[in-house]
Amino acid sequence: LPVFPKTLGRERKLVKDQGASLSCTAQTVTGAAERQDKMELSAAFTWKEECKKLGNYIPNGADPRTALNVGIEIGFLLDQDAPFRFPRDDEQVIGNWTNWPDHLTQMAEDQKKAAYIRVPKIGDWFDSIRAALVRGQIRDQEVMAFTRWRASWNQTFIPGVETNDQIGGHAYRIIDFDTIEGEEYLVVQNSYGENFGDRGFQYMPREAANRVFSEWGSGAFVYEDLPPGAIAEAKKDTPFGALWRSILKAWAFIMIKYG
Question: Is 200 exposed, middle or buried (0-12, 13-18, 19+ CB in 10 A)?
Fold first, then answer.
C-alpha cells in the first residue's frame, strides 16, 4: 500500500439529483465517466439504456453490472444532447427507451470505456479503496461503490457503529479521502442533490467501509478508458480500423460475459 497523504484534494464536481427515481446505478457510472472524460454526461441516457437492457422502463433499481456494461457496450451521451434530465423529467418518461431518438445511441460511442476493474482487497477495504484512488488519480478514476445502505447513513458523517436499519442496495461514488479532526474518512459523492449531507457529499469512516464492503453482493470498481482515438480509428474503413473494431468487440464480449 502507498503512504497516503491527508487528501488528494480533488475538485468536487457538481452533485446530481436523481429525484425520486431508482437510478443510482446510472448516476454512479455516469458520474465516474464524467471525471475521466472531462465533460458533462447524461445519467438519464444511461438509465434509459439500463431500462432497455432490463426490458422494463420502471424497474425496481438495476444490477450494478447492467450499469457498468452500458459504459462498455454503448458509451455515454453528452448531457447537452439529451432531451430528458433528472429530476426535471418523470422517471418513467426517461426510462421508456421509445421516447428517445435512435441516433443518440451512436453519438454515445465516442465516450465508451474499455473495461471496468474490481478494486482488489489488500489489507482492509478502507485502505484498498484509498490505494485505488491514489493509483487512479493520474487517470482521473473514481471508485464506483455498490453496497447495502442504511437509513441512518443519510447524514454528513456516516456512523462507524453498526446499525440494523438496511433499506436496500445503493450505488455511489468515492471520489477522495480526507482527515477531519484526526479521523480518516472516504469522501462519498451521492446523487441526492446539494441539499443532502455536506452539499451532496458524505464522509465514511474506516469501520463503516470495512463492514459494508465485506457484505455479500458489495463491490468497488473503476473504469479503464480506451486509448485516445480508438473509437475514431474503429470507424474508419481501413485495415487498422477493422483491427480496432475487432478489439473493441472482444473487450465488450469479455466484460459482459466475465466482468
Answer: buried
Query: Whole-prediction pTM value?
Result: 0.90
Region of 67 please: left (phi>0), alpha (psi -120 to 50) or beta.
alpha
- 176 forms beta bridges with 187
Choose among 66, 79, 31: nearest CA to 190.
Answer: 31
DSSP E strand boundaries for 33-165:
113-118, 143-150
Question: For residues 212 and 168, what is the distance between their CA atoms, to the nearest angstrom?
Answer: 12
Q: What is the pLDDT of residues 17-75, one digit of tens each?
A: 999 999 999 999 999 999 999 999 999 999 999 999 999 999 888 899 999 999 999 99
130 burial via Cβ count (<10 Å: 0-12, 13-18, 19+): buried
Other beta carbons less than 10 A from residue 160's beta carbon:
15
Name the nearest CA neighbour of 95 among 45, 129, 168: 45
Count other Cβ atoms within 10 Å, centred on residue 75. Answer: 24
How far apart, in whole angstroms, are the C-alpha atoms of residue 143 and residue 128? 11
